[in-house]
Amino acid sequence: MTTVSKEMNTMDELTMDITKDIQENFDLIKKGTMEIHNEDELLRKLIRSKETGKPLVVKLGLDPTAPDLHLGHTVVLRKIRQLQDMGHKAFLIIGDFTGRIGDPSGNDKSRPQLTEEEVLMNADTYREQLNRVLDRDKTIICFNSEWLDAMKPSELLQIMARHTVARILERDSFKKRMASGEPIGLHELVYPLLQGLDSVEIEADIEIGGLDQKFNILTGREMQQKNGVEKQVAIFMPLIEGLDGEKKMSKSLGNAIGITEDADVMFQKLMTVKDHLIIRYLNLLTDMKPTKINELIRDLTERGTNPKEVKLVLAKEVVTLYHGVKAAELAQKNFEHIFVQGQIPDDVPAFKWQSSDNLMSFLTRNDVIVSRSEVRRLVAQKGIKVNDQLILEPEVIGLRSGDVIRIGKRQFVKVA
Amino acid sequence: MTTVSKEMNTMDELTMDITKDIQENFDLIKKGTMEIHNEDELLRKLIRSKETGKPLVVKLGLDPTAPDLHLGHTVVLRKIRQLQDMGHKAFLIIGDFTGRIGDPSGNDKSRPQLTEEEVLMNADTYREQLNRVLDRDKTIICFNSEWLDAMKPSELLQIMARHTVARILERDSFKKRMASGEPIGLHELVYPLLQGLDSVEIEADIEIGGLDQKFNILTGREMQQKNGVEKQVAIFMPLIEGLDGEKKMSKSLGNAIGITEDADVMFQKLMTVKDHLIIRYLNLLTDMKPTKINELIRDLTERGTNPKEVKLVLAKEVVTLYHGVKAAELAQKNFEHIFVQGQIPDDVPAFKWQSSDNLMSFLTRNDVIVSRSEVRRLVAQKGIKVNDQLILEPEVIGLRSGDVIRIGKRQFVKVA
User: Fold this and answer.
1) Percent helix, strand and coil across chain A, each to the nearest 5
2) Does residue A7 register a pLDDT over 50?
């Protein structure tokens, strides 16, 4: 990590003292980022904001399609929350202007054309979900149609005239689509400029986004400069991998953790994170200070700490963010009860034993396991225990009241 | 030339009689054109217009930069005049909407950014000049800002969304500029669509232009169709070569004939047209009927007529269009007087002879020739005659009242 003092050598005209809190804030902002354009400017803005007491304007552009947020989305949102906790305010701009245009050609399935009602409904969904991550008092949600609708068509063309086709087509996603012969609608070339206009309009100090937004966010910088507004600092966050440890977190891949999932589930899922991603999750999904994370890294690499210990810290940290510290503690207790100590939880379902039952019929009759063949499969995998004894012949086993059957790691059934 | 009856074979559903006047009009419209998209549609429109008595709407787009019209421009304008003479009305659309945008990047020098005042002033200049070619009662000059300014920016983007970048960049001029790395402003991609919107707005039946407008005019056809308006017929006219016989007519190349030039000059210039362009000039610069032009072609190719004879017909025809038949007859008389019979015209300027004069001092003192060295140059080229006698020593020649000095081919001076 580059230290600030090293950066300072290149900042001749910057002759202020970087106070301890600014240094700490800077380090926290930098945590987990992929790129910052540029750090000098960010430092200047932080210092000025402290001196003047004027919070920075942090911008995030939001797609107007209905969101269903998982921890992958919070990589960007947490960065904003960290800035809010430092006193800055967030402008979340819902791109309803472009959302209402969509892609009438139908070429781009990811851009359905939305009605005004749909946009408003989606905005409510956003608000409800964003409130779980952001500081509601420092969050302004707005619609870019507010200023873009007010433009004259000639103004729009004049803005377009300041940009060349070649330059816009340099954008990665356009380049790829051009190369593969995939159609690009003429309107799409304007979207980066409209996004830039949003930055001009709200006079954004910082815009946060994924690297896929690099072109658009840097275009915003240029456009602010052309319009006499101080350039925004661009902060690029990475995409986070899901629980499979490889692919980017996504609901459709089944490797995601939803931010509304209950505390126990969230905790359990976080405990399945692949070891090589523990520190990455701490960096991207929590607000933990870099100094503390560095300690944990040392635990893992120098002090021989079991990764499971650090995972427990991670899980508790994340669950606390979404469910509070009490729920997190309880979730940890429940988790340790079942998974670490192998104990039986308190609320295990119980079914009556009939005289004709054997273990096989007991499990299938009560729909504990869907089929006889599934029971056989589990037995073959050594996945069924009764009172901690491995079962090999389920059709000859008789039970009595109070016996506990354990299926796989997490499922328990009692004989009533 | 394709005959109409041959075309008709492909027009199954068209079962009307093509009357003699429609056939004649069709032939005259077709005269000199490069391409018509397409002839069937044109015939249909002509027939319907005759049946309903409703004139066709003929569209021409005009650049809002200041015009200075020469015969090259009239290739398109005469075609419109011919349509007006058949009863149809012309909409001349001044592209002030795009003119006011211009090319702020300064990349395209041919597109200066114009103020509203400049646009209006240029429109007046247009009106004055167009009245020399078009039928003022059947000409409507309008500004496309009227409807384009009223658009919402979202409407503009929605229109853009129906066109792909790849398709627009297929346009010849874009392709060339992209290939050579010349910058293309993003706004320029929209211009073809705006021009198409003009066709939608005025419900054009016919749009006329040069082949350089092919993409734009055909885009207009598509856009009309998408908007439920009958497609316009596209008529493409060629560019005409100038008096040098090779390069396209252009003021800056010095090979042009201005439409405001006086009758004698116009007549004389037309008599210098290269022989291979006589018929082309008749086709593109006059309203002469194709049957009559075919006669002249036969005169030249079969009957051994001297091209000069046909040129006289051409010159008189063109001068009549811009100065009336009387002025054209006088111009022809003057031309024949000087150039054909070598005679002295009636209105030769006269200067007094002074006792101290010789030919040299007489010519330079009266500013007939700018300098003594110029006199000497002309003498050396055998360019100065007195009463048809070649002069070799201008400084020893004395003259008397009534002598006529001929300088070069066309300039005459008399001794008073």
Assistant:
1) 50, 10, 35
2) no
B209 in Cβ contact with B195 (< 8 Å): no
B184 chain-A contacts, CB cut-off 8 A? 164-166
Chain B residues with CB under 8 Å of A162 CB are 104-105, 185
Here the tokens at position A123 are 């905005």
Pairwise CB contact (< 8 Å): B97 & A154: yes
Residues in chain A with CB shorter than 8 Å from the CB of B181 are: 166
Report the distance separating Cα A320 and Cα B137, nearest Å: 82
Q: What is the pTM (predicted TM-score) of this model?
A: 0.73
Q: Which of A218, A213, A100, A212 is nearest to A149 (CA)?
A: A100
Query: Least CA distance to B158: which residue of chain A?
Result: A101
Q: What is the mean pLDDT of residues B235-258?
A: 92
- CA-CA distance, A121 to A129, in Å (whole number)? 13
3-state secondary structure of B240: coil
The complex's ipTM works out to 0.72
Contact B185 A168 (CB under 8 A): no
Count contacts between A and B (CB, < 8 Å): 126
pLDDT in tens, B313-360: 999 999 999 999 999 999 999 888 776 666 777 678 888 888 888 899
Please give, rounded to a whole number of angstroms, the shortest distance from the CA of B302 to a CA of chain A. 56
Cβ–Cβ contact B185 with A under 8 A = yes
Structure tokens at B70: 């020469």
Query: Where are the extended beta strands (E) located within B217-310?
Result: 233-237
Residues of B with Cβ-Cβ distance to A185 under 8 angstroms: 160-165
Q: Give one DSSP letter per residue of A236-274, joined into a string.
A: EEPPPB-TTSSSBP-GGGT---BTTS-HHHHHHHHTTS-
Q: What is the rounded distance in angstroms from the CA atom of residue A103 to the CA atom of residue B326?
A: 63
Could you tell me which residues come within 8 angstroms of residue A198 by beta carbon, excluding any fewer than 6 positions away? A59, A61, A93, A95, A144, A147, A204, A220
3-state secondary structure of B107: coil
The 3-state DSSP class for residue B142 equals strand
* Pair B401, B336: CB distance under 8 Å: no
Q: Does A165 touch chain B (CB under 8 A)?
A: yes
C-alpha dihedral sign at A196, A199, A200, A206: negative
pLDDT per position as a tens digit, A86-135: 999 999 999 888 877 765 555 555 566 777 788 888 888 888 889 999 99
- Closest Cα of chain B to A114: distance in Å? 13
In chain A, positions 98-127, which contact chain B (CB-CB < 8 Å)?
98, 100-105, 107
- Mean pLDDT, to the nearest integer, of A299-309? 91
Q: What is the pLDDT of residue A402?
A: 79
Residues A169, B166: C-beta atoms closer than 8 Å: no
Closest CA to A126 of A90, A155, A162, A160: A90
The model's pLDDT over A389-402, given as tens digits with 9 standing for 90+, comes to: 888 888 887 888 87
